[in-house]
Amino acid sequence: MRRATVLMLATGLVFSGGARRAAAGEFGVSLEGGYFGMTNASKSAKAIFGGTSGGFTGGGSIRYVVARSFFLGVGGHYFKRTGERVFLADATSTPFRLGHPLTIREVPVYGMVGWRFFPDSAFVPYVALGAGQTSYSEKSIVGGIEDPVGQRVSKFSGHFMAGVEWGRGIVRLGAEFMYTTVPDTIGVDGVSKIYGEKDAGGMSVVGKIVLVP
Questions:
Q1: What top-level class would CATH report for the domain 2-211?
Q2: Which site in 25, 98, 110, 199 is 20 to 30 Å from 192, CA atoms measured?
């Protein structure tokens, strides 16, 4: 009983942190994990991944509060998933899976500006806009040999984020939705060309652990 009481008190101290007011100069470092879907090229992604458009994504970000509500930040995510190469006669036909592994990797890195609502509350919604660079690559294995025609590009990407942060102490929890656009990344050949899809961006939903020293 005594140990349980001590644990509850310690947890309360971590999340309350003395009920600190939001202040300019506050840093926050977050670790993030959740789901990313290539919804801007959903037909191509579903054909390659066998019916789903994405998978797990992880990453992190650093933010700096400039003036209580206004903040600046940088962040990055990592997405990698292996599906199969497919044959597609036309955009209306059913994809035929060829059995050759095809791995897609996306790594967006971006800067952002944002606004925090109710900064002195324990429940803080926020929105942000970002811009950066996304590295996109494809690697295919045919007969145990890597296909040398794999695509590797780095493109400008735009980002919109909306989320919420809970807590007023050193450790806080959060959730975030992000929409990413990466124009003219794909669509040069393969299934994406047949479907007429050129944007490798999409939507992600992540949970966050935020550390505020």
A1: mainly beta
A2: 110
DSSP per-residue letters across 13-48: HHHHTTTPPP-TT-EEEEEEEEEEE-GGGHHHHHHH
Q: Show me where the domains of the chain are located.
A: 2-211
How far is it, in rounded angstroms, from Cα 200 to Cα 51? 17
Alpha helical stretches, state H, the chain: 2-16, 42-49, 190-195
Its sign, for the CA torsion 115, 173, 118, 179, is: positive
**pTM of this prediction?**
0.86
Q: What is the pLDDT of residues 10-21, one digit of tens each?
A: 444 444 444 455
Taking only the tens place, the pLDDT of each residue in 123-175 is 999 999 999 999 999 998 887 777 755 678 999 999 999 999 999 899 999 99
CA within 13 Å, CB half, 156: 3
On whether the CB atoms of residues 58 and 80 are closer than 8 A, the answer is: no
